Amino acid sequence: MATRMDLSPNQVVRLAQVGDGPSTERLLTSDAIWMCAGCLTCTQRCPKKLDPAAIMDVLRELSSEGGKVSGHQQQILKFHRSFLDSVEQTGRMQELLLVAFYKMRTLDLFSDVMLGPAMLARGKLPLIPSRIRGYQEVQRIFDSCRKRPSAQGDSR
Amino acid sequence: MNTIGYYPGCSLHGGGRELDMSIRAISVVAGVVLKEIDDWSCCGATAAHSLNHDLAVSLPQRVLALAEAQGFRQVLAPCAACFSRLKGTHVRLQRSEALAQKTRRITGLEYRGTLEIVNVVEYANRLLTDGLDRKLSQPLRGLKVAAYYGCLLSRGEGIIENEDPEDPKGMDAVLRASGVEVVPWSHSIECCGAGFSMSLTDAVLDLSRDILAQAQAAGAQAIVTGCPMCHSNLDMRQQKINSRGLGSFDMPIMYLSELIGLAAGLTPESLGLDRHFVDAMRVAGRNR
């Protein structure tokens, strides 16, 4: 993914080291932190033995909490949130719920619509989402991990 | 290892169903009982570690704590992403008592760190050394494959062990025992675009195209993976890669456990081969 990023992983680390106002702003509004797939290549190969992949995680958290997510990358944030919504409501990720939440958020209703029936035909899309018994335990975990009641900025 | 805890993870109930089917099938052949962790929940995957650090550790910790309390010593997590999250959490909780305490407060559950978490490549190798090799009576002679590890079966400090992260070889012995020829190639540890299949589709199509093209150039007739996300990007998205004009591929994408199952003489349907997007049934029948 690095070749598609607006900042390379080593530039991300350098800006984090500089850490002044403009550098932080550049980082938190960058495309790069959202385009990171967590492939760990940068961490594996870092000649200074740093962990850029973990730094990206922190930056994403700060960026979404601060409402600074790049306009280009909103769909990635929406995907992550849709994934977690499914987990919060049922205890597990359910593809049908994930896709439904994602399409509601993005209003991109028509891309890949034919994949649904194709997955269904292959027995890969359970139609009735089921909850685990302990789904309320999972909801409590989500509640405890939410820092500020869905505060600032970016729209959910 | 006659009974082992089983964490299928969410994908294996949906898009990654063949991995679940084939893992269960080869376990039966090997005489290993997979016992599902009762009431397991999602590991949080990329979404949790992208948005909330506490959640990224707490969700896997619930799973680990349940498995431990249910008396398991070992847990098999066939999905590469689940494995990476579960074992990564295990390692981090071992290294930081402060994090362990905080996580305990969040989940209300204790994890003492006694589990051994096993991925699909490690599991296959163990089955092999425990006698499965003698049951692979129908080797897939003449099949050339590219062994594809992607990110989470090759990298992760303290998570992937006994493997060269730049040139992993963990699948080789199992594939050879299945009669398969493993071709050398360039893209065994490149990223396929992972969880961006919906949110950054173009990137996934490009990255997966490169992997398909390099496997083809190396003379592979199939790509072998252990990750349901890689499988989905390479198999389900292959049609879109072709229709976008990025190539004209017709490359079956096989799970490691499917090839082992075929070599053990199991029917392709029982392993889920008829559920692939790119025809995988042609890979079966080579051994008959």
Which helices and strands, and how do they pair?
The complex is a heterodimer of chains A (156) and B (288).
Chain A: H1 9-18, H2 21-28, H3 32-35, H4 41-45, H5 52-65, H6 74-90, H7 95-106, H8 115-121, H9 135-145
Helix pairs in contact in A: 1-2, 1-5, 6-7, 6-9
Chain B: E1 3-6, H1 17-30, E2 33-36, H2 45-51, H3 53-69, E3 74-76, H4 80-95, H5 97-107, E4 116-118, H6 120-129, E5 144-147, H7 172-177, E6 181-182, H8 201-217, E7 222-225, H9 228-236, H10 238-243, E8 253-255, H11 256-263, H12 268-271
Parallel strand pairs in B: 1-2, 1-3, 3-4, 5-6, 5-7, 7-8
Helix pairs in contact in B: 1-11, 2-3, 3-4, 3-5, 4-5
Overview of the molecule:
The complex is a heterodimer of chains A (156) and B (288). With 156 residues, chain A is mainly α. Chain A folds into 2 domains: 2-69, no CATH class; 73-145, no CATH class. Chain A contains 9 helices and no strands. Chain A has helices at 9-18, 21-28, 32-35, 41-45, 52-65, 74-90, 95-106, 115-121, 135-145. Mean pLDDT of chain A is 89; it is low at 149-156. In chain B, the strands form 2 sheets. A 4-stranded parallel beta sheet of chain B has the order 2-1-3-4, sandwiched between helices. Chain B has a 4-stranded parallel beta sheet with strand order 6-5-7-8. Chain B has helices at 17-30, 45-51, 53-69, 80-95, 97-107, 120-129, 172-177, 201-217, 228-236, 238-243, 256-263, 268-271, and strands at 3-6, 33-36, 74-76, 116-118, 144-147, 181-182, 222-225, 253-255. The longest helix of chain B is centred in the N-terminal third of the chain and has 17 residues, at 53-69. Chain B has 12 helices and 8 strands. Classes of the chains: A mainly alpha (156), B alpha/beta (288).
